[in-house]
């Protein structure tokens, strides 16, 4: 046990029996975890020198940040259509949503695109389409990605990018869940 843990144990008045002071705590039932033993094991593991994991230099890492609601604009996604899989993303969104998100994103009107029910899926799909472009132009950025984050709808895009959520789940999330 480390000196710090031992001092803390003594300061709280816990003896080696696992009971504090003179109280009459019953012994724990068989099969329960002995915290003192876990602490001893953890301390012993700390004292054994371990081989340091190879760290990447900051220039060899990337972090992707996905935008949220409010970043939508008519015409968004137009420059992404020439990259592999982008049209597939919009086709999948159409199947899930039941309307042509690509048409709305490209041609508007802006008032319709600004509605929460439309702008969140539009930002979500456009974000993942941008990842497709990045993967095509700079695959090392995707391969060296150590984190992905986003706000509001961007959080769902980050989860899909990380593989923690399916595209169909992220594109079908109701607007209330984005807020």
From TrEMBL:
Pfam families: Acyl_transf_1. SUPFAM superfamilies: FabD/lysophospholipase-like. GO terms for biological process: monocarboxylic acid metabolic process. It comes from the Eukaryota. InterPro entries: Ac_transferase_dom_sf, Acyl_transferase_dom, Acyl_Trfase/lysoPLipase, Mitochondrial_malonyltrans. Residues 65-170 form the Malonyl-CoA:ACP transacylase (MAT) domain. GO terms for molecular function: transferase activity. This is Malonyl-CoA-acyl carrier protein transacylase, mitochondrial isoform X2. It comes from Pteropus vampyrus (Large flying fox). The lineage of its organism: Eukaryota, Metazoa, Chordata, Craniata, Vertebrata. The gene is MCAT.
């Amino acid at each position: 046990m480390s000196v710090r843990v031992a001092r803390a144990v003594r300061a709280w008045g816990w003896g080696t029996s696992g009971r504090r002071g003179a109280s009459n705590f019953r012994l724990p039932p068989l099969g329960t975890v002995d915290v003192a033993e876990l602490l001893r094991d953890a301390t012993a593991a700390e004292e054994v020198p371990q081989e340091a994991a190879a760290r990447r230099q900051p220039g060899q890492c990337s972090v992707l940040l996905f935008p949220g609601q409010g970043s939508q604009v008519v015409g968004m996604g137009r420059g992404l259509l020439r990259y592999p899989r982008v049209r597939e993303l919009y086709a999948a969104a159409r199947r899930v949503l039941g309307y042509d998100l690509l048409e709305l994103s490209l041609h508007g009107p802006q008032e319709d695109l600004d509605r929460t029910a439309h702008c969140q899926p539009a930002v979500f799909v456009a974000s993942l389409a941008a990842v497709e472009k990045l993967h095509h132009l700079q695959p090392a950025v995707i391969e060296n990605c150590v984190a992905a984050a986003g706000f509001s709808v961007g959080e769902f895009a980050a989860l899909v990018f990380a593989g923690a959520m399916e595209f169909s789940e992220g594109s079908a999330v109701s607007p209330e869940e984005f807020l």
